[in-house]
């Protein structure tokens, strides 16, 4: 997981599992129950990060260019 954080330049990583408890493995890695994603969408993975601006990638077509 440390390699993924470094290589992908991630601020935080969520690990989904079929259990019921949410807990931290480290400052940058949180274990999240799969039911949290199903019940609350992506916002439930990182609830404290809701104030962060989300950047959207604009898709462009190169067909016919």
Describe the structure.
There is one protein chain. The chain is an alpha+beta fold and 65 residues long. The protein has one domain. A three-stranded mixed sheet has the order 1-3-2. A hairpin with a 4-residue loop joins strand 2 and strand 3. The longest helix is centred in the middle third of the chain and has 7 residues. About 14% of the residues have low confidence.
List the helices and strands and how they pair.
Elements: H1 2-7, E1 13-17, E2 23-24, E3 29-33, H2 34-40
Parallel strand pairs: 1-3
Antiparallel strand pairs: 2-3
Helix content: 10-25%
Q: Number of DSSP strands?
A: 3
On the 0 to 100 scale, the average pLDDT is 76
For the largest beta-sheet, the strand count, sense and barrel status come to:
3 strands, mixed
Cα-based radius of gyration, to the nearest Å: 15 Å
The number of domains is 1
The N- to C-terminal Cα distance equals 40 Å
What structural class do helix, strand and pairing data support? alpha+beta
Low-confidence stretches are: 50-58
Summed up, the helix count is 2
**Strands side by side in the biggest sheet:** 1-3-2
- Coarse morphology: globular
Query: Which series of helices and strands comes N to C?
Result: HEEEH
Short description:
The protein is α+β, with helices and mostly antiparallel strands and 65 residues long. The chain has 2 helices and 3 strands; from the N terminus they run αβββα. Strands 1-3-2 form a 3-stranded mixed beta sheet.
Feature tags:
single chain, about 60 residues, alpha+beta, 3-stranded mixed beta sheet, about 20% helix
């Amino acid at each position: 997981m440390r390699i993924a954080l470094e290589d992908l330049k991630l601020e935080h990583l969520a690990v989904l599992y079929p259990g019921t408890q949410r807990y931290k493995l480290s400052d940058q890695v949180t274990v999240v129950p799969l039911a949290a994603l199903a019940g609350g969408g992506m916002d439930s993975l990182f609830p404290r990060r809701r104030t962060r601006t989300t950047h959207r990638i604009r898709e462009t077509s190169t067909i016919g260019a």
